[in-house]
Amino acid sequence: MTKSxxxxxxxxxxxxxxxxxxxxxxxxISEADNGADALKLCRASMPDAILLDWNxxxxxxxxxxxxxxxxxxxxxxxxxxxxxxxxVEKISEALDAGANEY
Length: 102
What we know:
Number of helices: 4
Strand order of the largest sheet: 2-1-3-4
Strand content: 15-25%
Distance between the termini: 26 Å
Helix content: 40-55%
């Protein structure tokens, strides 16, 4: 069975590179350039995994993660923050909000 991954990043280049790698690993890919659009996609069809940026317009990654985890089946996806944010406080905040990896 093919797994699905949602890539959430405002950088088209980052989405393109991540999609290429994940397609080689046989993931079905969907993309969003902000957390609000990602949340809409998740409500329509919950992915198995989410690669998530922190800093995005409209809705940032942490706000998206908190909203995701509060939705039905929102605890199901594995969420991996993939971001340049690397302070201990940010990492702790993301993990406390429900990120699986950082």
